[in-house]
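Entry for pyridoxal-5'-phosphate complex. Fields follow.
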Amino acid sequence: MKEGTNVKFVDLAAPTAQIRKAYLAEVDKLLLRGNFVLTREVEDFEKAWARVVGTRYAVGVSNGSDALYLGLRALGVGDGDEVITQGNAYNASVTAIMRAGAVPRFADIKRDTWQMDVHAAEKLITKKTKAIMPVHLFGQPNDMAALMALAKRHKLRVIEDCAQSHLGAFKGKMTGAWGDIGAFSFYPTKNLGAFGDAGAVTTNDLALYRTLKILRNLGQDGKDNHVEYAFNMRLDAMQAIALRLKLKFLHGATKKRSRAGARYDRMIREARIPVAPAARDPRADHVYHLYPVYSPEKSRDRIRSELLEQGIPTGVYYPLPVYRQPFFRGRHDPCPITDEIVSGIFALPMYADITVQDQRRIVAALENIFLCGKLSLPQIVI
Ligand SMILES: Cc1ncc(COP(=O)(O)O)c(C=O)c1O
């Protein structure tokens, strides 16, 4: 390392310390009560989460992958159906569609915002299309007004993948409240993260809510009455306790992320270096789960190793589009823009408490890489 101490890529220690004592006290109460499954702690969190998102209902589940699967099942998606998602969807978004028995179709992304191209999505609609699954990747909400209008025109259901967009909003309405279903992950590094795996499904529809509660609990409608072929995908009480306590800090932490994101945007623009973040949709409240930037192909790995040399870790979300992963053997729709963007993105450190000093140091390090001639690249325009 050439310079000072390492910058952190994410920081889970500070948000954990904020609730550690209260968490231990609550868990102790649970242990003394000796009642562990689908307890009042789970219900309390579900009510609180529905209030935050602005939906009538929230159902706590095992993780974000299962939230997507359960949402699709509740919508009646199954064998032979098609679900349209975006080219840069995460693996779990796509495998949830496949687990439900449906075929994923991939709409390319827009070159500016890196979000679903609604026109590309419309071209994929067939008689088999049942639902659209926008993924609010990196924390920037998709154009939900256009997507909902498209779904209405073609009588399709909408399931939002909100794993990276807690408190993100489009035209003032939260992600997870636009579609028929919102699916959230509370994986520890998410903007609201548990102390292990956890997730939730949100909806305004009473019938969907009732079905979701049955589906997450081995298909039971009342004890031992298994009306659906379904599995154990319940939210654990100890995770519900952590989430409820952390929720108190989510709004404040999100504001800090947004400020840090805007600061990076400005610093990178002023530095005039050939890396750039996605364009920001002015109608969307971006919650900066990650801070990815794009650099033309073949330079990413060199930039990342130069930064690491200077104690600055980066990440790649995700190195390959999911349809190019070895497991995916199906036919896929061509997504040339996804292919191009995915090959050149890497994420800079981002978390609520990242300091201005660290951000300055990161952007200065980037500037140095280019100014010192270690890399000279054509100016890119996004
Ligand atoms: C966009 C997206 N969808 C789905 C998931 C799956 O969530 P989980 O890891 O909780 O199963 C994640 C998180 O890993 C994600 O980032």
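NOTE: The chain has eleven helices and twelve strands.
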